[in-house]
Design brief:
Layout lengths: L2 H37 L6 H5 L13 H4 L9 E20 L5 E2 L2 E2 H4 L5 E5 L1 E6 L3 E4 L4 E12 L5 E16 L12 E10 L2 E5 L4 E21 L3 H12 L25 E26 L2 E8 L2 E13 L1 H11 L2 H10 L7 E12 L2 E11 L2 E10 L6 E6 L4 H9 L8 E5 L5 E11 L4 E10 L17 E13 L2 E16 L24 E18 L1
Antiparallel strand pairs: 1-4, 1-7, 1-24, 2-3, 5-6, 5-8, 7-8, 8-9, 8-10, 9-11, 10-11, 11-12, 12-13, 12-14, 13-16, 14-15, 15-18, 16-17, 17-20, 18-19, 20-21, 21-22, 22-23, 23-24
Helix pairs in contact: 1-7, 1-8
């Protein structure tokens, strides 16, 4: 190997290191997009879920604050509401080695422990401010929400405030699970802890509403890393050529490659990420029109929130990875190459502060509610979410980093000494839902609904971290008038999403070309994912 060949390989490996770190942040937030779409409006109110979230013209109680604040005018006197949504999440993935699976001539079926393996988890994880990522001891998570409203007798104003969770998604895998590379554990959530809102009844037909929502956003990931690409395949072949197992290095001290075993199927290390925004404000506007007792129309808008996520990252490298670079840098050619390209020093760990500009997307929804019969009502909604606002992710580090110097040389438009930019390419989505309500008696309403949820991730960026494609959510439930002041709502929901990702079709997961430098831990393998989500909710609202 010549000095120039060594420098070229080192330069490429430096770029790989840069991309692995940067793309990890990008893909973590890409996953937020998918999970946000998956659980959008899924954890708030049982009535809304039972009706397929088609409630913009028929908002549910206190959670009108979220769905359509104009609906607050339906609440009289003083009322208190408490809700619980119970979640069961089941995630499976199969990593299938196709015929001829290999990396740089190294047989994958024989050497890759992940080939033809199965991943499964139903363990829920959450993000707790001040504590970060936490695994729950049971597979079912209970998500609470609640609020209160006040309307004085004779007033056209209704004031309300609520605590609720617009979305929360997270899971935890065992250390031996083959899905740990994407990732082992993650939690992503947005918690609205203060939402002062007001509804105003203009007349018998028209109502309007508005609110200010203050939220906390948290993202945490714990991920093992590997890089089954051609460059590391080349490194393993060179180590075999150098007979590293014998302990003799033929080109020492000019070039040494036997400080540690590195290859396409070997672990590189573990990366931990924790980002949050403690105060993230949005505003909500809504309107309802009820020209007749049997028809209502509603529309609602929630603004975007520009966030500056801040937090820390830490990478703990394996002994083999660190030892390889320490030994390489100790050779004559390695020292010269490292000095020119600022290659890794072989430190056992790396840590620092990082921030990311990120936008919580704006959302618009409109719908109708009609009484087709005195015993039957039908609701229909369509909603739009501006996920295309996530065209790129801009990362900023608290200092100039060595690994960004190579990125700046190789991609000056996307990197400086302390910043890194990655395209995300998310897609806007229109969802729709329909719900029916059977008025079985003066006290009991029976409900059923479906909702179409389309994926926001382009087909070329699918991952096991967000195993979610286009899917239908099926819902049933009931409402029961306990007494003249008390209402109880309950719901059951279920969705099942299956994705098949053939090898070399998603360059955020399984591409194996030398030009695919984005993190692809399952390069060259077919991947099949399955996601099952079950929700059970109950709500209690009464006057006080």
């Amino acid at each position: 190997m010549t000095l120039f060949a060594s420098a070229r390989e080192g330069k490429n490996d430096m770029w790989n290191k840069t991309v692995r770190l940067g793309c990890f942040f990008a893909l973590a937030l890409t996953t937020f997009a998918a999970n946000a779409q998956l659980v959008q409006n899924a954890l708030i109110h049982p009535k809304a879920l039972a009706l397929g979230n088609a409630v913009t013209a028929d908002p549910p109680g206190m959670m009108s604050i979220h769905y359509n604040p104009a609906g607050l005018t339906r609440l009289d006197d003083r009322q208190l509401e408490v809700n619980f949504m119970n979640i069961y999440l089941d995630i499976d993935a199969d990593f299938i080695a196709p015929e001829g699976y290999e990396i740089f001539g190294i047989d994958g079926v024989e050497n890759d422990p992940i080939a033809n393996s199965h991943s499964h988890t139903n363990t829920v994880a959450v993000y707790i401010p001040g504590f970060g990522l936490q695994k729950l001891p049971v597979p079912i998570a209970a998500v609470p929400s609640g609020g209160f409203s006040v309307r004085e007798p004779g007033s056209k104003f209704t004031f309300a405030n609520a605590f609720y969770i617009p979305f929360a998604a997270g899971y935890h895998r065992s250390n031996s699970d083959p899905g740990k590379y994407y990732p082992r554990a993650t939690a992503i959530q947005r918690v609205t802890y203060l939402s002062p809102s007001v509804g105003y009844r203009i007349n018998d037909e028209w109502s309007v509403g508005a609110g200010i929502h203050l939220s906390h956003f948290g993202l945490a990931v714990d991920q093992s890393m590997r890089a089954p690409n051609l460059l590391l395949g080349m490194a393993e072949v060179l180590q075999d050529a150098f007979s590293c197992e014998s302990g003799d290095e033929p080109l020492s001290p000019w070039l040494t490659l036997c400080g540690g075993n590195v290859g396409p199927f070997d672990d590189i290390g573990v990366l931990n990420l924790d980002l949050q925004e403690t105060i993230s404000p949005t505003y909500a506007l809504g309107v309802t029109w009820e020209p007749t007792p049997w028809f209502a129309w509603g529309a609602a808008y929630t603004s975007a929130a520009d966030m500056k996520l801040k937090g820390k990252f830490e990478i703990e490298y394996t002994d083999d990875w660190s030892g390889f670079w320490q030994r390489f840098n100790g050779s004559v050619l390695g020292a010269i190459t490292s000095a020119i390209l600022s290659l890794p020093s072989g430190a056992p760990e790396e840590r620092g502060n990082v921030s990311a500009d990120f936008t919580y997307p704006q959302h618009f929804q409109t719908g109708i509610s009609m009484d087709l019969h005195p015993l039957l009502s039908v609701n229909f909604d369509v909603g739009w979410t501006d996920y295309s606002a996530w065209d790129a992710l801009d990362l900023e580090f608290d200092r100039t980093l060595e690994f960004l110097n190579a990125a700046r040389i190789l991609s000056p438009d996307n990197a400086t000494g302390n910043t890194l930019k990655f395209p995300l390419g998310m897609q806007d989505v229109w969802n729709w839902g329909i719900g029916t309500e059977l008025h079985a008696s003066t006290r009991l309403d029976l409900r059923a609904g479906i909702e179409v949820r389309d994926s926001v991730i382009p087909s070329g960026s699918r991952t096991t971290m967000a195993p979610f494609g286009d899917v239908l959510m099926y819902n049933v439930g009931f409402g029961y008038r306990w007494d003249k002041d008390t209402m109880v709502d309950a719901s059951l929901s279920y969705l099942h999403s299956v994705e098949y990702i053939p090898a070399d079709t998603s360059c955020a997961l399984n591409c194996d070309n030398i030009t695919n430098i984005i993190y692809n831990p399952y390069a060259g393998m077919d991947v099949k994912t399955s996601l099952r989500l079950a929700l059970a909710g109950i709500s209690f609202r009464t006057k006080f």
